[in-house]
C-alpha cells in the first residue's frame, strides 16, 4: 500500500533509547526556556530600548509562544528526534527538511563553542592564569562523554541545571517584587519613577524599541529541545503537550517578569545595567552581598546547560537527517540507543569553532557568527509553513492526531508569519543585523539548492 502524504517522513528515532523520564522532560521544558541569552544579552537590550524593553519582550514572547504552539501541534502528532526538520520534510518536501536540519545543526554546533568560551571566561575570572581553551576542552569532554554514554545522563544534567536556573530566577523575582512593593526591608517602593522618568518609557523612540525587539527575539534559546527530547521518552505525546501548554506562562514569568522588575527598580541608563547586566545591577541595588559572583555562578550554569542541550540537540538532528537519507551514513550509527558518532562529530565541530575564535578572530570566526545569526528565523518560518500544510492534511486524514491544536487556525499562523516577516525587514534596516541576515540567507539558499538537487536526483533514480 502506498504511503499517504502525512506518513511520508519516517519517525527517525526507531533505534534510539527511551531513557528520558517524565521528570526530565518537565524540567527541560521549565528550565529550557531560561537560556543563557536572557542573562548575557538583556543588558544591551535595556540600554537600547529603556523601559520599553518590557514591551519588546512581550511582543517577541508572543511570537515565540505561537511558534511553540505550532511546533507542539506537529510534534505531538508525529514525535521525532528530527522535530521541525522531520515536519518540514513531511509537509513541504525533502529539500525543506534538509535545509532546516543542517542549518540548525550548524547553529547548534557553533553555539556549543560560543557557550564554552563564555563559561571558560567566567571560570578564568575566578581562577586567573588558567588557560581558557583548557576549560572549554574540559567542559566539552564532560558533556560529550555524558551524551556518549546514555541519554539519561543528558536528562540528569539538564534536570539539575534547570532546577538551579529556575530556583535562581524565581528567587530574583520574589526579591524584586518585594522591593517593588516596598515590603523588602531596607528598600522603598520606587513607583513609576524609573518607568516614566529618565527619558520616559520610550527614551530612544521607536528605533530603540526596534533594537530591543531584535535583541529579545534572539534571547529565547532552548525552546526546541523539549520537542527533540520527547521522542526519547516513554510517552512523547503527553510530554510535548504538557510542555507546549505551559510555554506562555513560562515566557511571561521568566522573561517579561524579570525585565519588568529590572527596569522598575534600577534606572535603565545606569552604567551597571549595560556593563554587569540587569540581574547584578538589581541585586547590587538591593544590597545583596556577593551579587556579582552569585549571578556569575547562575550564568555559568545557564551556559553549561546550553552546551549540554546543544550537543544533545545537534546529535539528534544529525541522526534524524541521516535516518531520512539526508546525510552521511556514518553519523546515523547508534549504539546502545545513542547516536555516538553524531555526538562526537557535533562536539568536535563545536571545539573547532572555539579554536577559530583564537586562530582567526578577525575573519573566519566573525563570518561564522554572521552565518548563523538569523538561522532561528529560517527555522521558525519553516515551522509555520509546515504547520499550515500539515494541519489541513491531519484534519482530513488523521484528526485523532491533533492532541495539541494551534489557536484560531489558520489566522494566528498567518499572524506569526507576518511577525517573522516584520523581524526580517527590521533586521535588513539595521546595519548591525543586516550582515547577519544576508549571511544566513546565503547559507540557507545554498542548503536549499543542495537539498533540492538531492531530492530531484533521488526522484529521478
Q: Structural class of the secondary structure composition?
A: mainly alpha
End-to-end C-alpha gap: 21 Å
Tally of separate helices = 21
Instruction: Report the average pLDDT across residues.
Output: 88
CATH topology of the domain at 19-113 and 165-289 and 361-451: Amino acid/polyamine transporter I
Number of distinct beta strands = 0
Order of helices and strands: HHHHHHHHHHHHHHHHHHHHH
- Overall shape: it is globular
Strand percentage, roughly? Answer: under 5%
CATH superfamily of the domain at 19-113 and 165-289 and 361-451: Amino acid/polyamine transporter I
Name its key features.
about 450 residues, mainly alpha, Amino acid/polyamine transporter I, globular, disordered N terminus
Structure description:
With 461 residues, the protein is mainly alpha-helical. It has a domain at 19-113 and 165-289 and 361-451: Amino acid/polyamine transporter I (Up-down Bundle), CATH 1.20.1740. The chain is built from 21 helices and no strands. The protein has helices at residues 22-32, 36-40, 42-49, 53-77, 83-91, 94-126, 132-149, 151-180, 193-196, 205-217, 225-229, 236-245, 247-265, 271-276, 278-285, 291-323, 340-359, 364-372, 375-397, 411-429, 431-460. α6 (94-126) crosses α7 and α13 packs across α15 (278-285). The longest helix is centred in the N-terminal third of the chain and has 33 residues, at 94-126. It is globular and about 70 Å long. The two termini are 21 Å apart. Its main location: membrane.
Amino acid at each position: 500500500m502506498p504511503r499517504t502524504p502525512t506518513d511520508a517522513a519516517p519517525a527517525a528515532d526507531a533505534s534510539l533509547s527511551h531513557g528520558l523520564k517524565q521528570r526530565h522532560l518537565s524540567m527541560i521544558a521549565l528550565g529550557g526556556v531560561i537560556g543563557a541569552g536572557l542573562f548575557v544579552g538583556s543588558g544591551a537590550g535595556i540600554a537600547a530600548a529603556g523601559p520599553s524593553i518590557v514591551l519588546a519582550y512581550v511582543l517577541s514572547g508572543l511570537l515565540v509562544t505561537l511558534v511553540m504552539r505550532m511546533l507542539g501541534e506537529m510534534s505531538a502528532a508525529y514525535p521525532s528526534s528530527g522535530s521541525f526538520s522531520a515536519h518540514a520534510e513531511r509537509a513541504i518536501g525533502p529539500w525543506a527538511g534538509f535545509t532546516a536540519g543542517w542549518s540548525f545543526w550548524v547553529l547548534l554546533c557553533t553555539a556549543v563553542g560560543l557557550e564554552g568560551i563564555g563559561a571558560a571566561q567566567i571560570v578564568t575570572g575566578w581562577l586567573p592564569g588558567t588557560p581558557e581553551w583548557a576549560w572549554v576542552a574540559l567542559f566539552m569532554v564532560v558533556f560529550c562523554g555524558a551524551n556518549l554514554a546514555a541519554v539519561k545522563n543528558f536528562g540528569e544534567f539538564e534536570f539539575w541545571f534547570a532546577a538551579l536556573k529556575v530556583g535562581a530566577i524565581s528567587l530574583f523575582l520574589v526579591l524584586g517584587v518585594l522591593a517593588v512593593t516596598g515590603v523588602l526591608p531596607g528598600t522603598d517602593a520606587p513607583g513609576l519613577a524609573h518607568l516614566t522618568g529618565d527619558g520616559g518609557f520610550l527614551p530612544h523612540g521607536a528605533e530603540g524599541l526596534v533594537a530591543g525587539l531584535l535583541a529579545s527575539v534572539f534571547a529565547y534559546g532552548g525552546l526546541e529541545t523539549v520537542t527533540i527530547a520527547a521522542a526519547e521518552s516513554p510517552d512523547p505525546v503527553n510530554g510535548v503537550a504538557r510542555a507546549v501548554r505551559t510555554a506562555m506562562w513560562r515566557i511571561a514569568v521568566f522573561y517579561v517578569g524579570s525585565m519588568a522588575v529590572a527596569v522598575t527598580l534600577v534606572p535603565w541608563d545606569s552604567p551597571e545595567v549595560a556593563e554587569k547586566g540587569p540581574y547584578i545591577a538589581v541585586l547590587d541595588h538591593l544590597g545583596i552581598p556577593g551579587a556579582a559572583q552569585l549571578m556569575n555562578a547562575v550564568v555559568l550554569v545557564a551556559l553549561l546547560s546550553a552546551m549540554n542541550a546543544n550537543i544533545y540537540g545537534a546529535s539528534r538532528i544529525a541522526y534524524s537527517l541521516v535516518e531520512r537519507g539526508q546525510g552521511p551514513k556514518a553519523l546515523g550509527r547508534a549504539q546502545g540507543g545513542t547516536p555516538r558518532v553524531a555526538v562526537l562529530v557535533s562536539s568536535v565541530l563545536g571545539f573547532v569553532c572555539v579554536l577559530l575564535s583564537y586562530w582567526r578572530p578577525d575573519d573566519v570566526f566573525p563570518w561564522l557568527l554572521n552565518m548563523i545569526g538569523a538561522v532561528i528565523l529560517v527555522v521558525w518560518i519553516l515551522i509555520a509553513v509546515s504547520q499550515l500544510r500539515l494541519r489541513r492534511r491531519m484534519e482530513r486524514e488523521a484528526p485523532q492526531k491533533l492532541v495539541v491544536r494551534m489557536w484560531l487556525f489558520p489566522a494566528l499562523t498567518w499572524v506569526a508569519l507576518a511577525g517573522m516577516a516584520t523581524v526580517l525587514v527590521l533586521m535588513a534596516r539595521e546595519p548591525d543585523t543586516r550582515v547577519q541576515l544576508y549571511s544566513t540567507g546565503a547559507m540557507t539558499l545554498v542548503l536549499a539548492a543542495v537539498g533540492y538537487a538531492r531530492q530531484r536526483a533521488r526522484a529521478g533514480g
